[in-house]
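Hey, sorry to bother you again with one of my protein questions. A protein chain has come my way and I'm curious about its shape. It would help a lot if you went through both lines with me. I owe you a coffee for this, so here goes:
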Amino acid sequence: MKDFRLYDIADFVMDEDFIRWVQRKDPVDNLFWENWLTQNPSRHLIVAEARQIVEFVQLEQQPIAPAEIRSEITRVLTTIQQTKKKDEPEHPRELPTSPLRPATRIRLAIVAAIAAAAILVLIITGFPRVTHHAGPQLAHTGSQPLADLIEKNNPSDKPLPVDLPDGSIITLSPGSRFAYDKKFNASATRDVYFSGEAFFTIAKNPARPFRVLTGELITRVLGTTFTIHSFEKDTIVRITVRTGKISVYPQSQAKDIPTTSPDGLIVTPNQQLVYHRDEKKFQKILIAKPLFIVSDTVDHSMIYEDTPVEQVFDQLGKYYGINIVYDNELLHKCTVTADLTNEPFYHKLDLICRAIGASYEIVDAQVVIQTNGCQ
């Protein structure tokens, strides 16, 4: 029994069942792949690229060993990726010579040339712009036809802002891509399938949560701003919240969590959730340079004159949205005299702790104050 979850692009391109589905569009095959993609939404971008290659190439069967073809395809993919990084897509590198038999080498060269042309087309033109088109599209992960996805990528070297129908904005970093259903505004949840890095500014709509599907994870929000770094090749996924609040959970738990439920790992401003793909473990940390989360209309001054340290910590936590844990009984006699207005967050902490003879550590994205109290 084939486990398509382990397939990469080359595996799909050379798989006879996959090729049959793409070329013949048999209703039975369509049903299978729609169901499979529904259960494995994180694979739809890879499936889409493989489909585009197969549809472009339309190779005739040749008596070549699958292992040899796969090796050649893999080398072509590697060569094209290297070419792309050097920003010279119109001049692909010459493929290295192979120790294969002369006849096989010729046939493989043909396969490689066609595959290289197909992949170059994708790299040069990128995924289709946000519009209707007749070309191949990403496979849909729901009950709608496979052609009902709108796709966008950023082949440039600058951030690319993309407006969504609900008023949300996704600012794509170079080399990043996403897709969403054409009936985006009519669905119960606003789902986006994403790979790469982007800054999300989500329009508030409590009745229709916004969900970002990235690899093994689902990030659910109502209205907030955050960044996701999740390229397919990465072993670590990073989700950083700027404003608002999000919840993150594995896609394997999607069926067990209602769309309106707050369940999952909660991430708040100035926090970053790190997911280690190999170990399937989560880690929540504070970002290196926390920023104010309060409105610009609020007085940001932090000038203290013999001010109780509990009041100082409470204001600090409120301004940055960071939980500061301390012992009230030990600190009730401590006071602070300082102007912390223009100091970075961690320097503020250092100065406060120095003034009261305390120290701190970061535990699960919280600041924990350690002290013996003030006399």
